[in-house]
Each structure stands twice: as structure tokens, then as C-alpha cells.
Automatic annotation (TrEMBL):
It comes from Allokutzneria albata (Kibdelosporangium albatum). InterPro entries: CdaR-like_regulators, PucR-like_N, PucR_C-HTH_dom, PucR_C-HTH_sf. It comes from the Bacteria. PANTHER family: CARBOHYDRATE DIACID REGULATOR (PTHR33744), DNA-BINDING TRANSCRIPTIONAL ACTIVATOR ADER (PTHR33744:SF1). Residues 328-386 form the PucR C-terminal helix-turn-helix domain. Pfam families: HTH_30, PucR-like_N. Residues 11-176 form the PucR-like N-terminal domain. Signal peptide: none annotated. This is PucR C-terminal helix-turn-helix domain-containing protein.
Length: 396
């Protein structure tokens, strides 16, 4: 297809008589680009024999020749080489190299080509305006060819992935991958399956005993085939409406709202919450929301520090019998939570105020002036809550 070139295009500003001079530079620039790509991109550092070497060398050489043709005639269509670059992208996918690697090679090639063109421009004494147009043309040309290669890569990837459902699951895998997948790779695959990239998401961990039917379309991405099924739900989607219809009596834990780049962290906490619900530490609810239990999740997340705090702050209770320990700990926590006297604590615990007074006197004897220190009272409350969570007490 012939390209329409307007007067502001860099191609329109380049003298066509430069083309023959540039053509003589092609072999040397090809060798430079090929050498640097092999030096700087490990995936290409292999002997240039067979189909691999032929494809890479041919691709670089044809890119430069096509650039020269466009300088000679800005109307030169890309059609004759378009299929070649789509095949190159397809070949990259089949070789097992990532899209990010392919694009890194194009970016490096563009830098080397521009450096060579700059040296060429100095040799033939091009004006500043022409040099500027030459630089713009180099990077526009590389962008055009890279877009064709990406098109071929994604087409091969989509074909290899099979059904639309499998492509969407692959997108979900890339979003949740650790270390994180480059944003551009995710964006390109999302475009291929018509999935608008959300800014923030929830990730939902599902109990395998109640796995819902798969979503083939729509905003929710799902992986329901593995031992730990999960969903990725863009912000703003009504979860109860979707999950309530399809859980079939199972359990789901909704991870904290997170940026798309942090989706793997949301899934990690959703799975943690699901396990804590199974263990009786968090409420046994059909849809458990991490956002409603953030303090509890935090308190059980660092067992070493949690246990150290419990040992430090609750040490005065150690000499007591288990039953005494339980009663005084319960009373101390109620007192710290209510910040009231014996009647308020008694009402909270459902016991007689005189019993509370007796226990409070015992606590004063055990803890002394520490009960008057705000920082200590805070740590005591945290330690008591953490201890209950660690014991699997669903009352917290």
C-alpha cells in the first residue's frame, strides 16, 4: 500500500540524492548492528549459522535497504517487506524468545543505525535541519518495522495459545508473574484479546471445592483448572453479583485492591486469608474480603515478630495457671478496648463488676506502672489480639 506523505514528514525533508550514498553504507552498518545485538542481548549470542543467522542478518540488511528506498522515494510502500517482518516476529515466538527481547533488539538497532547516520551526515556535511529529519526518519522506520514484527509475534502466540479462553488465561499468568512481566508485553496481549487494562484490581482466591464456571469473555480473567483457582477482577466490577451465582457453596477470598502491577501481592494475601478461614482464624464466610480483616492479616503475617511481642508484653502472666492466664488476659484486653472502669468491662465480658475489680487489682500487681504508659498499653492490646489470632480464636 502506498504511503501518503505530508510536507511535515521527515521523509519529505530528506534529499533523494542521499539514497545512493547511503546504499554504500548498508553492509558496514549491518555488520555493526549484528555485532552489537550479539554482544548486548544474551538471547542472540549464538553462532550465526543456519536459519537463525540467515533470518537475523537478512532482517537487518533488508531494514536498511528499505530505509534507503524510502529516502529515494518517500512514497515507497512497506507492503513488499511487511510479510517478511511478520514472519521474523513469528520466528522469534517459535524460537522461545520474549517479545521484550525482540523489541530490545529493534531499539538497539535503531541506536546503532542513528549513530552511523550521524557520522555519515557529518561526512557529507548535511545541514542541522536535514540531520534532524534524518534522525526522525530512522526511528520512524524502525518503529514501523518493529510494529510488523510484533504483529507477527502476537499472531503466532495467539495461534499457539489456541482458544480465546487460553489466551486470556495466558494474560492472567503474565499479570501475576513474578518477577513482573514488562508492561508493554501485557498491554499487547491484552489488546489481542480485547481486554482493557484496568488501573487497579482485586484478585480472588477460590476454594477448589466450589469452583465456578469459567468466564470466556467480559472483564473478569479466570484460571479455574489448577489446584489453586483464582480470578482477576478489575476495580468497579460488582463481585457479589458474579460470585454469588457461581460459587455453588464454595468459599472465596477477595484480595486487597491493588495496582495492576501489584496483582500478585493481592493474590498472595487472598490465598493467605482463605487458609486462615479454613483454619478458623478468620470468619467462615462465603465471600471473605481481605479489606475487612487487614489488621488481623497483618498481625498473623510475621510470626517471629508477633511471638516476640507476645513474649515480651505478656511475660507477667507466665507464672499463672492456664485458666488464670486466660481469665486475666481476657479482662485486660476488654479493659484496653473499652477504656472504661469495672462496670463497662463487666458488661463487655458478661460477668459481675466485683469480679472485674478483683481481676484488675491482680493485673495492677502483675504489670505495675506499665499499665499507665500509652505505648505499653498499645503493645499490650496488639499482643493480646495477636495471641488470640495465633490460637485460632474466631472471636477477634
Amino acid at each position: 500500500m502506498t504511503r501518503l506523505i505530508d510536507a511535515g514528514s521527515p521523509w519529505a525533508k530528506l534529499p533523494s540524492e542521499l539514497a545512493p550514498l547511503m546504499r554504500a553504507q548498508v553492509p558496514g552498518v549491518t555488520a555493526q548492528i549484528l555485532s552489537r545485538i550479539q554482544e548486548e542481548i544474551p538471547e542472540y549470542s549464538r553462532p550465526l549459522d543456519g536459519p537463525f543467522g540467515h533470518a537475523i542478518t537478512n532482517g537487518i540488511e533488508h531494514a536498511l535497504i528499505q530505509f534507503v528506498h524510502r529516502v529515494a522515494d518517500p512514497q515507497t510502500p512497506l507492503d513488499p517487506c511487511a510479510e517478511m517482518y511478520r514472519r521474523l516476529g513469528c520466528g522469534e515466538f517459535r524460537e522461545g524468545r520474549s517479545l521484550d527481547t525482540l523489541q530490545a533488539a529493534y531499539r538497539l538497532g535503531a541506536r546503532i543505525a542513528w549513530r552511523s547516520m550521524s557520522e555519515f551526515g557529518e561526512q557529507v556535511q548535511l545541514s542541522t535541519a536535514t540531520m534532524r529529519a534524518l534522525g526522525e526518519a530512522v526511528f520512524e522506520h524502525i518503529d514501523d518495522l518493529a510494529a510488523l514484527a510484533v504483529e507477527g509475534y502476537l499472531a503466532a502466540q495467539a495461534k499457539a495459545s489456541g482458544s480465546r479462553e487460553r489466551r486470556r488465561r495466558r494474560l492472567l499468568e503474565l499479570i501475576l508473574a513474578e518477577p513482573p512481566t514488562p508492561r508493554q508485553v501485557i498491554s499487547e496481549l491484552a489488546d489481542a484479546v480485547d481486554w482493557p487494562l484496568p488501573v487497579r484490581v482485586h484478585v480472588v482466591a477460590l476454594d477448589p471445592s466450589g469452583v465456578p464456571e469459567p468466564w470466556l469473555d467480559g472483564p473478569i480473567l479466570a484460571d479455574l483448572e489448577g489446584p489453586a483457582p483464582h480470578l482477576l477482577v478489575p476495580e468497579g466490577i460488582e463481585l457479589d453479583e458474579h460470585l454469588g451465582e457461581v460459587l455453588h457453596g464454595g468459599r472465596a477470598a477477595v484480595g486487597p485492591l491493588a495496582a495492576l502491577e501489584e496483582a500478585a501481592e493481592s493474590l498472595r494475601w487472598a490465598r493467605r486469608a482463605l487458609q486462615l478461614a479454613r483454619d478458623g482464624v478468620l470468619p467462615d464466610e462465603p465471600i471473605l474480603r481481605c479489606s475487612e480483616h487487614l489488621a488481623s492479616l497483618w498481625l498473623v503475617s510475621e510470626a517471629f515478630l508477633r511471638d516476640a511481642l507476645i513474649r515480651k508484653r505478656l511475660a507477667p502472666l507466665d507464672p499463672l495457671t492456664p485458666r488464670q492466664w486466660e481469665r486475666l488476659a481476657e479482662t485486660l484486653l476488654a479493659w484496653l478496648e473499652t477504656r472504661s472502669g469495672a462496670p463497662g468491662v463487666a458488661s463487655r465480658l458478661g460477668i459481675h463488676p466485683q469480679t472485674v475489680r478483683y481481676r484488675l487489682h491482680q493485673l495492677e500487681d502483675l504489670f505495675g506502672s506499665d499499665l499507665n504508659d500509652p505505648d505499653t498499653r498499645f503493645e499490650l492490646e496488639v499482643a493480646l489480639r495477636a495471641d488470640r489470632l495465633a490460637r485460632g480464636d474466631k472471636g477477634i
